[in-house]
Amino acid sequence: MRLILSARLLIAANALFDVLAAAEIRQQPALEAINTAAQEFAPTFSADGKTMIFSSTRASGKGGFSHLYMSKLVDGKWSSPTPLHSVNSQFNDETPYLSADSKILLFASDRDGSIELPKDAQGRVRVSFDIYLAQWDGKTWSNPRPVQEINTPWNEKSPSLSRDGRYLFFSSWPFGDMQRSRIRVLDLKSSGNTIEDLPPHINSGNQETALVPGEDNTRYYFSSRRPGGKGGWDIWQTRFDKGVWAEPELLGGNVNTEGHEAFLAVSNGNYFISSTFNREKNDYDLNIEPIQEPKPAVVKKEEPKPPQKHWQVQLIDADTKEKIGGYVRLEVLEADSEKDAAYTAEQNGGANHAIELDAPKKVTSEEIVRLTGKSAGYLPSTEDTDVPTIEAGTYLLPLKKMQKNASLDIRSIYFDFDSARLKNSSVPTLKLILDFLKQNPKAEFEIIGHTDLKGTAEYNQALSEKRAESVRNWLVKNGVAENRLSVSGAGESRPVVARKGKPYDEQNRRTEFRMK
What residues does the OmpA-like domain cover (predicted)? Predict the structure, then answer.
């Protein structure tokens, strides 16, 4: 049995599912068999409006795991729900969405097989929510499979499809940080599986989530905590027509209350909303409100796309070129400078997708981007590139497998001019090597110093040896056994480029770590 810390159990980080001691059920006759003292939320309907699938924690209580249930409309009332055993797991299954033909069921789950993050300080495995898909064969639902095109170490929830089936929408936020929730879209008819955020007037930074199509192929609804609402989360409406998203408006009528409203669905002339109804009650029940024709939305003029906000890095095996998962740190530094990084971002990721890192808001083409990659069973790696290169597309960062004679060239260990004295700016890279040696106690390195081609061969040989010794001394001082490290100098005898001057001197000056 795994000890998990899932986003569903991080209740404090997700106010959509806060659990209070008191439970009040606001009952409507048609929903008597649906609402309980537990959570009922995120309904979705068949095209004829006679079948509803929704999420509920009724089997394990308000604070327990959520699962999917099905109910039928009989004589104006919804029948007692039955669990979807062929779809549900032993963990969380929620926020379902039925396609227009009712043959595809999308939902979110943190079941076994979802992307796992490194364990937390208590040794618990952190499991993100991923999007899953099941298909109806006329008798039963197929075994759900993950939608690899969109799943990442972030939480992905609340999937939906446009009425014409072209766009797949979903909500996404970093594990445990729903404050950064945003709505994203994948154009299923485009090549390349490009995923984009909806524009800033939709993703306003106020925890937008759960976008669903409305009564036609241009109307959409979503939940947000933006100013101008009635309570916490409220339902907002917008239109998407000819590639342009309209400015959102608060949905009128009796849909929104002083409590929280989310996960709206449209069926047979009614809105079905997950609602807490008031500020004191934070367990969700389903509510039905008749659709009222909204005022025409104001179409926002199409604006130029903002500069790229994310950079993508894919770790690969240096020999086979196969994709691998791991950790990437990104630093932006001034050109020709050894100062600390002006901007840093880091992220873990699996092998199926490039690792997406937030790009700095302001960056110039002259700045240097330093990328550091780590993966189990591989040597760490660090290399520099420029801003235009990383903005041009997914950057491939190769890692070498841990094996005898595997070597790592590092150029971000700096020394005082004409000296073997380490500069403080070398510490982040030295810590990278230190962490690797501590995590791999049997690993041993030969540290080899290399110089540029300036000066005499004798002088460069001596300098390279002294610099290798300085690196070893720093590692030993910080806890590495001296017998795990040997040193040598190559001087100027093994240049990467047999030329002098910029940028060749920088390429030739390096510290090599070779596994013994």
Answer: 402-516
